[in-house]
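I have a small job for you when you get a moment. Would you make up a two-line entry for one protein for me to read? No commentary is needed, just the two lines. Write everything out right here, beneath this request.
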Amino acid sequence: MTTAIETPKLPAGRTLALGASRIGYEIKTYFRQGDSVFFTFLFPLVFLTIFSVAFSEGSFGKTASGTNLTAADFYLPGMLAAGVLLSGLQNMSIDIATEKSDGTLKRLGGSPLPVLSYFIGKIGQVIVTGILQSALLLVVAALAFRVPLPTDPIKWLTFAWVFLLGVSTCAVLGIALSALPRSGKSATAVIIPITLILQFISGVYLSFSQLPDWLQNFASIFPLKWLAQGMRSVFLPDSFKTLEMGGTWNLGGVALVTAIWLVVGLVACRLTFRWIRKDS
């Protein structure tokens, strides 16, 4: 029977310093993996481009000034929310499951590196790459597809807290979900279908108001629906809030549901994360 490897406790300052150094290492490792960069970092941008070009002749409603809302205008909030999910939950769960399988976590468990420093490195990498991904989406949307970005500082403040709360929650849930695949080889097959289903039922690729009521209620259990709704409140005209459940952006609900999932993820991490699998 495998027993847990105890690492010596380090001062808090040293633990944080090790975590900060791990962030740089994790970012470099992330961008060296071409498949991860494409399927997590560039994936939302690719889909925004596809939708914007494919539906370039269509109208998705009216802006506050009376001009037509383009496909790029309409899909930008959903792609930003999808990016948060992919950078956090999908990337994190597959990455850690692979590290468990190839022995990386076992080696780290025998080193002085505290678990907290490891988590700081992983979550820091998700936040940094998530910020870069969102910035790239916004720049391309504004320059290539002429999406008018908000000028109201309150809108950008809303974007900031929705993004930070969402990416933190998805990262923590990704750590917890990494315990689900039985091996690194199966991680992609297990995790990607979960994230795809969530995107389709949460108003990322399909208009949320067009989904059946029972599916809207089911999707409302999960954080992605609320993250997409929060992003829509920033980038779509206020008239579009009538298409949401309850006819309002309900930013309080966005914060509450996402925060609940953050707590659930933290508890799940505490219960499931180990340097070495129980059955190894």
